[in-house]
Design goal:
The protein is an alpha/beta fold. The chain has 17 helices and 21 strands. The chain starts with a helix and ends in a 15-residue tail after the last helix. This is O-fucosyltransferase family protein.
């Protein structure tokens, strides 16, 4: 007991005035340490549970992240249609709000009921005289007729009319988009107008021809430009390439229906060839793989070329995988330009065809002492090659898969440095013109359903419900709350026998791809132009082209019903593979 007073005194001594400062510093230190520990804990929890935003809401600069790099070389290919740059354009939709209404077209003072009366013309004996298509009043008459007839599209620009196929015909072009368009693209149509003149000189539009019937109003192909001239300028006929901005950088939009100039770029002179820097990928195991595999690897090569500020030497001859061919075997000799928009690529990036390149190289490399740098290990990163001064860098790939896949170059640390430039690769505008033609025949006023059957419907182990869920009876039940009766219904499907869907005709006006085969048969524009690319030999409208057109027509429907999102509980890639996005 005698010790307690002294203990209390010793404890109370810590509260003496001379000790308060020391105690306060200790308390502050303990408080700061506590805050630090709590902060570390909160940061750890956030880092462990954070999920990034959906990359679909990011613009095109973020496309590579969406497409998910496979750093362990387990890239899984499939037979679906690949997405290309125009599918990911994060275009501000205000770029499409300014369109031409009927009220924007002047009504001439001499306009009659439903037509235009010509000035200072005695019509006696001149009713059959040629119509002056260049007359501004005739121009306004044609514009008003087009706007009144095609109510499901927005018009953005009209080209000046020209004389048609006879004295009473005018051809006129316009740029448009469907009113409910979901793709960032413009379309061009040019049609024939039949104009009649009455006894009192009144002009009226009697009829408007089919899609692309006004060939005289079509813009001529531009002359091929040198590879070094890639400026996107104005087009003919007053049409301009619209370039809405994404993240401060102008991104050109596809214009489907323009004449395509995908001739090969050429080097202007020996000096310009010698001053250039080039990159080529040689060999490898990517050939004859799926289109998604091919494009994933090609975009890696293109991305490295852009990172190194070099011209990519590309092989325009590709091998089409047997999963797309009617013969069931891989087919060599297909042209890149059959499937992709080479004009946009060569206008937007520095590329050369390898046949032309090697011809120039053989001619000039010894004379000009052009040097070559060979790289045989894909683990040598583009960053390590940035200081190479040789004229040509050749990446040579071996025969052992998967280490001989081109896309291996863009894995690991390179993944965060070299970006795949997806905005440079678009789908073939010739194929997209077929899509536009089909949509136009349906007046851009249709709904669509994608019905996957084929091998998947027969594999009940992986897709146990798909066959029943896509039967005609099940389709009628699923669609009754989604598609109104009597609507045009485009059915995109891999079902070979389309009569399978006959029961749907009682409620809908059904349409299938094969109904439009005149757009690619031997009398079509597509057939003639692809044959020119193929040294005069006809080109088969192969399985990949069919799937691509079928899918794109589906995407342009006003209402779209998907198989694995709307019709069945099965997962797209088989049992137990469903994700939140599928």
């Amino acid at each position: 007991m005698l010790g307690r007073p002294s203990l209390l005194l010793s404890r109370s001594g810590s509260f003496r005035p001379e000790n308060l400062g020391q105690n306060a510093m200790a308390m502050i230190g303990n408080l700061c340490f506590t805050i630090f520990v709590v902060g570390v804990l909160v940061f750890t929890i956030i880092a462990a549970t954070y999920q990034p935003e959906d990359p679909l809401f990011h613009p095109s600069a973020k496309i590579t992240n969406f497409l998910t790099s496979k750093s362990n070389a387990t890239f899984r290919a499939d037979d679906s249609v690949v997405r290309t740059g125009e599918d990911f354009l994060g275009v501000n939709q205000t770029a499409f709000t300014t369109f031409i209404n009927l009220n924007d077209v002047d009504v001439p003072e001499n306009a009659g009921s439903g037509g235009v009366t010509e000035n200072n013309l005695d019509c006696s004996g001149k009713i059959d005289d040629p119509v002056d298509c260049t007359d501004p009043d005739v121009f306004h008459l044609l514009m008003r007729a087009a706007i009144e007839k095609f109510k499901d599209i927005h018009f953005y620009r009209f080209g000046k009319p020209v004389r048609g196929s006879n004295d009473s015909s005018c051809h006129m072009a316009w740029r448009f988009r469907p009113k409910e368009g979901k793709t960032a693209a413009f379309y061009k149509d040019y049609r024939s107008f039949v104009v009649s003149r009455s006894e009192n000189c009144t002009l009226d539009v009697v009829s408007i021809g089919d899609y692309h019937s006004g060939g005289n109003a079509r813009k001529r192909k531009r002359k091929n430009r040198a590879g070094s001239d890639r400026t996107l300028g104005k087009l003919d006929e007053g049409f301009e390439k619209v370039t809405p901005k994404t993240e401060g950088e102008p991104i050109a939009l596809p214009v489907v229906g323009e004449a395509v100039n995908d001739s090969l770029p050429v080097v202007e002179s020996e000096s310009s060839f010698g001053n250039g820097k080039y990159l080529i990928y040689s060999g490898g195991g990517d050939r004859c793989k799926s289109m998604s595999h091919y494009l994933w690897s090609f975009m890696c090569a293109l991305g490295e070329a852009q990172y190194l500020n070099r011209t990519l030497i590309m092989d325009l001859s590709i091998c089409l995988s047997k999963i797309y061919t009617s013969s069931g075997v891989d087919e060599e000799g297909k042209d890149f330009r059959f499937y992709f928009d080479f004009e946009h690529l060569k206008d937007s990036a520095s590329v050369l065809d390898q046949v032309q390149f090697w011809s120039d190289w053989d001619q000039w490399h010894k004379k000009d002492r052009l040097s070559l740098h060979l790289v045989e290990d894909f683990r040598i990163t583009p960053m390590k090659l940035s200081g190479v001064q040789d004229t040509l860098i050749t990446r040579k790939f071996g025969s052992v898969e998967p280490d001989n896949y081109w896309y291996r170059v863009c894995e690991g640390e390179t993944e965060s440095v070299v970006q795949r430039p997806w905005h440079l690769v678009w789908k073939s505008r010739r194929l997209m013109d077929i899509v536009s033609a089909i949509s136009s025949r349906l007046n851009w006023d249709y709904d669509s359903v994608h019905v996957v059957r084929g091998e998947k419907a027969g594999n009940r182990e992986m897709w146990p419900h798909l066959a029943e869920d896509t039967s005609p009876e099940a389709l009628l039940s699923s669609l009754q709350d989604k598609i109104d009766d009597g609507r045009n219904l485009y059915i995109a499907t891999n079902e070979a026998d389309t009569s399978f869907f006959d029961p749907l005709k009682d409620k809908y006006s059904t349409h299938f791809l094969h109904e439009y085969k005149d757009l690619w048969d031997d009398k079509s524009e597509w057939y003639a132009e692809t044959a020119k690319l193929n040294n005069g030999n006809p080109v088969e409208f192969d399985g990949y082209m069919r799937a691509s057109v079928d899918t794109e027509v589906f995407f342009r429907g006003k209402k779209q019903v998907e198989t694995f999102n709307d019709l069945t509980r099965d997962c797209k890639d088989g049992i137990n593979t469903c994700t939140s996005s599928s």
